[in-house]
């Protein structure tokens, strides 16, 4: 929650919490449901899901349209389709407006 309050929290960052600092990470398929659960909890606590896009020389956060449920479905489907850890910017980002 603190990260999403300070900066745009990429879905990849949430997934990377399960990577070991040294050595082999668990296969993504093993931790996928936990990642989806953490993202769901962040959304339930007020995080907004969206994308970041470049506008002139700056960046802006563009919230996804639709309900929290629709956002969770979109993230869940995207993560279920992966057999690897997501890449930065591949799925979306979370933020909390202060």
Topology at a glance:
Layout: H1 2-6, E1 9-10, H2 11-16, H3 28-44, E2 48-55, E3 58-63, H4 68-80, E4 93-95
Antiparallel strand pairs: 1-4, 2-3, 2-4
Helix pairs in contact: 3-4
Describe the structure.
There is one protein chain. With about 100 residues, the chain is α+β, with helices and mostly antiparallel strands. About 40% of the residues lie in helices and about 20% in strands. It contains four helices and four strands; from the N terminus they run αβααββαβ. It has helices at about 1-5, 10-15, 30-45, 70-80, and strands at about 10, 50-55, 60-65, 95. The chain has a four-stranded antiparallel sheet. The longest helix has 17 residues, at about 30-45. It starts with a helix and ends with a strand. The mean pLDDT is about 85.
Key phrases:
98 residues; four-stranded antiparallel sheet; 19% strand
Give a quick precis of the structure.
The chain is α+β, with helices and mostly antiparallel strands and 98 residues long. Helix content is 42%, strand content 19%.
């Amino acid at each position: 929650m603190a990260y999403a309050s300070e900066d745009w929290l990429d879905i990849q960052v949430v997934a990377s919490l399960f990577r070991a600092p040294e050595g082999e990470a668990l296969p993504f398929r093993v931790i996928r449901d936990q990642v989806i659960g953490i993202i769901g909890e962040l959304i339930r606590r007020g995080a907004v899901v969206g994308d970041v896009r470049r506008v002139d020389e700056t960046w802006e956060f563009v919230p996804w349209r639709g309900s929290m449920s629709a956002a969770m479905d979109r993230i869940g489907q995207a993560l279920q389709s992966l057999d690897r850890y997501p890449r930065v910017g591949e799925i979306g980002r979370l933020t909390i407006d202060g």
